């Protein structure tokens, strides 16, 4: 990697966004690697980074070749409370692999943390922040380009994460796994966005629990909340690759099909291009009416289009 400021130096995440670039992330490491036999469903922890590094490297490469501008470290749920003594080796190896692949293109490396198991049981701010701090120390040592706090159900814990990460001096992005109804304590998407920006996040948004259309509804509410508060931030949306209009507040994890029967809900490439166009407020240049009104069929006889949630 070229030295900062030298010939060929990569532009940072905020430099790219401030210039109007569309930055494309990666995603779906856990579910994709579970389908390939490298992750256990239910646990959803990233031991594969040390047990099967070639599988993780291959997936990073697939995202890079598909056009991802960011290689996020495979550190979802990799805090000490979830992984015990293995947490540090996992975080360090994830940084090294992400950097290796990012160096093969014009991609940045993002160090990622996620909600803790401890918060739901204790809500001890000092202890939760200590878990985030431990991971952050590895990310600083490995010199990641920016930081992402992702998959938070509670605005309070997400704020704690941002407060820890911003102490590094690196740009901080944060995403919540919420829908239009807000977080698990009833904090609205707009209020969540305001809290996160005030805590120090430069990029805010949603990820992972809901499909494309629902995620965009939530983003609209976040944007409106920021505008009403007179605040500005870059927006980030990472939806599921599944359609989930029948989800409850908890998202797709509450569906009867989760996690082994979701394939009929997979979004098509057309769905994703439409989602991307809407997300970034671009237009469709050719045959707009046809593509915007197309309703792809599943091809599955007698298959209901929506699920009934368990009582």
UniProtKB/TrEMBL annotation:
Cofactor(s) required, per the database record: Zn(2+)
Quaternary structure annotation from Swiss-Prot or TrEMBL: Homotetramer.
Species per Swiss-Prot/TrEMBL record: Vulpes vulpes (Red fox)
Keyword list, A-Z: Metal-binding, Methyltransferase, Transferase, Zinc
The protein's name in its UniProt record: S-methylmethionine--homocysteine S-methyltransferase BHMT2 isoform X4
Keyword Transmembrane in annotation: no
Annotated function: Involved in the regulation of homocysteine metabolism.
Hcy-binding domain ranges (all copies): 11-311
Pathway, per record: Amino-acid biosynthesis; L-methionine biosynthesis via de novo pathway; L-methionine from L-homocysteine (BhmT route): step 1/1
Cofactor remark from the record: Binds 1 zinc ion per subunit.
Pfam family, one: S-methyl_trans
Alphabetized InterPro entries for the sequence: BHMT, BHMT-like, HCY_dom, HCY_dom_sf
């Amino acid at each position: 990697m070229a030295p900062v400021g030298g010939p060929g130096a990569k532009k940072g995440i905020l430099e790219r966004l401030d210039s109007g670039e569309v930055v494309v992330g990666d995603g779906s490491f856990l579910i994709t690697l579970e389908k390939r036999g490298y992750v256990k469903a239910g646990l959803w922890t990233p031991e594969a980074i040390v047990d099967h590094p070639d599988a993780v490297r291959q997936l990073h490469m697939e995202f890079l070749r598909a056009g991802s501008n960011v290689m996020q470290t495979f550190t979802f749920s990799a805090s000490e409370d979830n992984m015990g003594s293995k947490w540090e080796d996992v975080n360090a190896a994830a940084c090294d692999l992400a950097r290796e692949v990012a160096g093969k293109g014009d991609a940045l490396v993002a160090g990622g943390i996620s909600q803790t198991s401890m918060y739901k049981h204790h809500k001890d701010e000092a202890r939760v922040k200590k878990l985030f701090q431990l991971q952050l120390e590895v990310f600083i040592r490995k010199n990641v380009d920016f930081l992402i706090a992702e998959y938070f159900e509670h605005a309070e814990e997400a704020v704690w994460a941002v407060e820890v990460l911003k102490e590094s001096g690196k740009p901080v992005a944060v995403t919540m796994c919420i829908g239009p109804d807000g977080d698990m304590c009833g904090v609205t998407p707009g209020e969540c966005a305001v809290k996160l920006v005030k805590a120090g996040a430069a990029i805010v948004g949603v990820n992972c629990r809901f499909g494309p259309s629902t995620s965009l509804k939530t983003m609209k509410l976040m944007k409106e909340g920021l505008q009403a508060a007179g605040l500005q931030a870059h927006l980030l949306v990472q939806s599921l690759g599944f359609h989930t209009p029948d989800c409850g507040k908890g998202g797709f994890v509450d569906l009867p099909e989760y996690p082994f029967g979701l394939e009929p809900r997979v979004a098509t490439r057309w769905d994703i291009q439409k989602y991307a166009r809407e997300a970034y407020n671009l237009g469709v240049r050719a045959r707009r009416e046809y593509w915007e009104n197309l309703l792809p069929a599943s091809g599955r006889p007698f298959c209901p289009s929506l699920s009934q949630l368990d009582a």
